[in-house]
Write a structure and sequence with these properties.
By secondary structure, the protein is α/β, with parallel strands linked by helices. The chain has 15 helices and eight strands. Bound molecules: nicotinamide-adenine-dinucleotide and zinc ion (ZN).
Length: about 375
């Protein structure tokens, strides 16, 4: 069956040892006069902003730091940074941070004029037009936001997180330097790493999967399954951290070419209403959704087994391989000490119907799930994690 698909990604991506060195050349090449550096206070207090700032100073470019951003911002909190950016007179954007920072920087890059706000983009994402080039330097591995045309904001009125998708938000440049995630606290490394794992496996099993997205999703899945544990456990495991950064970028490209599915769909209300971190809510849902999907995804899981298991292949049948893959993901979530239940976030049985209703609203992603998710199915999945 011939269907339509295409591939979009940032213009230039730098990775490997001392990748940050390229920052100076990028600024000079673009004749930048003043750079707006988007970040947050957590990154600043971890001393991480010092690395890129040293390169910006070496390029003799003026800069302004925009750091007043909480994790997983609401659209109004992100808008405050967009407004600060507009007033700054900067002609280039550098984002140094996780998905929250990168998404806000991306939104700023398409909201230069007074005409529209983020609230307008929630109704019609296509209103935004890129007016300034962007460079993404991720400090988590991660959301893949450095690769995608998506920006996700919380919408308190709807008690939901909403994804704004506009290809004008795809970054111009990306620098993946493992030094930026070297000291990432284990808890954040674990949650953001499992987010990338979800991106890879969801895109691989998505109704929108195609030869382009498969290439990126499968390589990402292989890298993540085999390197996430050392990357999170061992502060010195720079090779594993480098692989996780590359993998989360690749998984971001897979999102752009394909699309995530029911894990992300059912996760959005957990972030929007209960403020559970994106990676954590995905990690809680990953195994229950994969088990729900298994009847229609066995072949896909078995192909992933053939590609990602590098030692002796002990499984021979499709059923065995599929069960092994789900067990592997379950083992990773457990090893990384990520919560597997919503109880500790204060979610109770009384919240169930609200969750089902809000989750079912995320049709943009639910349509990608190979097994149809009915409200009864969503209820059964949420019930397992309460
Ligand atoms: N645009 C996309 O394609 C996409 C995809 C997935 C998720 N997201 C969104 O991204 C956001 C989550 O991003 P995230 O998971 O990267 O986390 P985050 O950006 O919200 O950061 C979480 C916390 O980690 C801290 N932090 C980040 N890097 C650090 C480091 N290296 N060392 C020490 N502390 C560090 C931050 O200061 C912050 O307090 C959510 O809003 C989510 O919905 C976007
Ligand atoms: Zn995600």
């Amino acid at each position: 069956m011939l269907t339509k698909y295409n591939l979009k990604m940032p213009h230039e991506i730098f990775s490997g040892e001392d990748a940050l060195e390229n920052l100076k050349v990028i600024l000079q090449k673009n004749g930048v006069k003043k750079v707006a550096v988007f970040t947050d206070k957590g990154i600043q207090s971890a001393g991480l902003l010092d690395y890129p700032m040293a390169k910006i100073q070496a390029a003799e470019v003026e800069s302004v730091i925009l750091n007043d951003l909480p994790p997983e911002p609401t659209y109004a909190q992100a808008q405050a940074l967009v407004d600060a950016y507009k007033a700054s007179g900067a002609d280039f954007i550098v984002a140094v941070g996780g998905g929250s920072v990168m998404d806000t920087a991306k939104l700023s890059s398409i909201l230069a004029t007074e005409e529209y706000t983020i609230k307008d983009l929630l109704d019609d994402p296509s209103l935004g037009k890129k007016h300034v080039k962007t460079l993404m330097i991720p400090t988590t591995a991660g959301t893949g936001a450095e690769a995608t045309p998506n920006a996700i904001v919380a919408v308190p009125e709807k008690e939901l997180k909403v994804g704004i998708v506009n290809e004008e938000m795809i970054a111009d440049y990306v620098i993946l330097d493992a030094v930026m995630i070297k000291k990432l606290p284990r808890k954040i490394a674990a949650a953001t790493g499992v987010d990338a794992l979800c991106h890879a496996i969801e895109c691989w099993t998505s109704n929108k999967a195609n030869p382009f997205s498969d290439l990126f999703a499968m390589e990402a899945l292989d890298l993540i399954l085999n390197h996430i544990e050392p990357a999170c456990d061992d502060p010195e495991a720079m090779d594993a951290k480098n692989k996780m950064q590359i993998a989360s970028f690749l998984a971001g490209v897979a999102i752009t070419a394909s699309g995530t599915t029911a894990v992300h769909a059912l996760s959005y209300p957990l972030g929007g209403k209960y403020h559970i971190a994106h990676g954590v809510s995905n990690a809680i849902l990953l195994v229950p959704v994969m088990k729900f999907n298994e009847p229609v995804c066995r072949e896909k899981f078995a192909q992933a087994y053939d590609r990602c298991v590098h030692g002796e292949h002990t499984c021979t049948t499709v059923n065995e391989k599929s069960a092994y893959m789900i067990g592997w993901m379950e083992k990773i979530v457990k090893h990384l000490d990520i919560p597997t239940s919503l109880k500790e976030f204060g979610v109770s049985g009384e919240d169930l119907e609200g969750l089902v209703a809000a989750g079912m609203e995320v049709t943009r992603l639910l349509v990608n799930n190979m097994r149809e998710v009915t409200p009864e199915d969503a209820r059964a999945i949420y019930q397992q994690i309460l």
